[in-house]
Amino acid sequence: MFARLILCIAFAAALLSAPASHAQGSAVQVDPAQTKIEFTLGSTLHAVHGAFALKRCSIRYDPASGSISGAIVVDATSGESGNTGRDQRMHREILESAKYPEIVFTPVQIKGSVAPSGPSNVEVSGKFSLHGKDHDVTLPVEIVIDGTKLQLTTHFVIPYVEWGLKNPSTFLLRASDKVEIEIHAAGRLENATGAQ
């Protein structure tokens, strides 16, 4: 359910791994119009699908020093699954989004490298702050580069119950204790001085 956050993480991965010709003073730019983001929560009756909105994504990388800075922030209050009653319960009892309105990821490490063009596979590790607690995560990302254009695909699972959130199961409906995320997205790398 944190797909927009992970979208930005994946672009940060591409930025970190890109050759110096792509990465000098680079900033990540995401195109929401070319982005498909889905979350799926399985249950005994049916799967629940929905989405969250990105609040802000500010990532800068200096290839000379190898340093990375910034944060990727999702608006936890924006989560929706198309059912008002279910969404109200998700925000009130599961996410407690009035108390924890942001979900934040800080990338710290990347494994693998991105080819100058064509597909590449990397893993991005970092701190995922959810519901007031930090969690170490590593995410697989496939990235395709064509000049400065980027496309990516990622699929991963968040063990939200293990992370301390309540399972929304009821007497009649049993929900999975994990949520699946699927992302297909596009964007580009730009010179940081020209980024908005």
Give a short synopsis of this structure.
By secondary structure, the protein is α+β, with helices and mostly antiparallel strands. The protein has 3 helices and 9 strands.
Summarize the structure in words.
This protein has 196 residues and is of the alpha+beta class. The chain has one domain: Lipocalin (Beta Barrel), CATH 2.40.128. It contains three helices and nine strands, in the order H-H-E-E-E-E-H-E-E-E-E-E. Strands 1, 2, 3, 4, 5, 6, 7, 8 and 9 form a nine-stranded antiparallel β-sheet that branches. The longest helix is centred in the first third of the chain and has 15 residues, at 3-17. It starts with a helix and ends in a 5-residue tail after the last strand. 34% of the residues are buried. The model has no long low-confidence stretch (mean pLDDT 77).
Low-confidence stretches: none
Major sheet summary line = 9 strands, antiparallel
CATH first level: Mainly Beta
Q: So, CATH architecture?
A: Beta Barrel
* Number of DSSP strand runs: 9
Q: Tally the helices: what do you get?
A: 3
What is the CATH T-level topology?
Lipocalin
The overall number of domains is 1
Helix content: 10-25%
